Amino acid sequence: MVSRSVKLLLALAFSVFLTLGSFSSFGQEEHAAPVAGEKKEEFNAGKTIIHHVLDSHEFHFFNIGEHAYAIHLPIIMYSPERGVSVFSSGKFEEGKVAYGGYKLDEETNKIVAVKEDGSVDETVKAYDFSLTKNVVQMLIGAILLIVIMLNVAKKYKTTGATQAPSGFQNAIEPVITFVRDDVAKPNLHGKHDRYLPFLLSVFFFILINNILGLIPGSANVTGNIAFTAVLAVISLIVILFSTNGHFWGHIFWPPGVPFLVKLILIPVELLGVFIKPAALMIRLFANMTAGHIVILSFVSLIFIFGQMSTVAGWGFSPVSLAFSVFIYMIEILVAFIQAFIFTNLTAVFIGQAFEAGHAHDDHDPHHHGEEIFV
Known about the structure:
Blueprint: H1 2-22, H2 24-30, H3 45-53, E1 58-64, E2 67-72, E3 74-79, E4 83-88, E5 102-105, E6 110-113, E7 127-128, H4 133-159, H5 168-188, H6 192-212, H7 225-241, H8 245-252, H9 259-308, H10 310-355, H11 365-373
Antiparallel strand pairs: 1-2, 3-4, 3-7, 5-6
């Protein structure tokens, strides 16, 4: 009971920090006293939410007054005309000024070459190799994955199987066993040992990045379509390398089907080979992005009501925080569920790629005996 209360208090504190931290910048900007003769800009919830969901060149945490507390990432630009330019993204002052012949376009979040007067220079071809927060956080996730697994493996080498797991090893081992027994074995038909390292890497890499994305001020890496697309392409490559002649035979000449129906099924089955990984890509991207948008939408309601009335803004704050904490707790669960779904469906698709070759063994009692005792 005490543990549950502590978790709820931590979640509430986390949500308050999210509200005061992530939204303090636009909250102060939008509600600052307008300059004489200048029209006050109204708070745009949609623009603000999209800005916080998209990638950027800094880890922004909060503002105090006009000073922004953020980690500015390096800008690395190459141009055949201007050579290599390396500087901090803080030089752009959030896209307000140009620096070193380049400027950050606030609308597209892309860096473009500019002239001395600040206009875009179409004659300069610029290549952007900058480290955005998605890239940096993905590298952090990869390093965490390697460190965690190496430490667990080192402990197994030291103690072997003679001692019960302890510490962090005790937390990781049930997850590994779950992926092996409930994901790999049921879907890979005796070949789970061959694919288990890949499935475990995918599961933990997605899970770590999902959890890191829930930290205020961090990047929503798994909510980036490019990230999920690369994972889907890797899964597609593994699936294609797992296929056999029986699989392609069923694709290009489905057995037991009339000829005219085959003409319809062949392109559908062929497209299905690529649609399955694409579905993995869209599912992970959509679910992780949606959760962040819902949380940000509830927090934005404070400022929307605050524009109508200060009392309404303060009065709705507890309601908004309560819903934000609720959705945040669900997002923690979704982080695990989406990692499981991506890994499980990948195992299913890999199993489908080579299971056709075992169709002739269905009536072989030895085949079933092997499958039971694997």
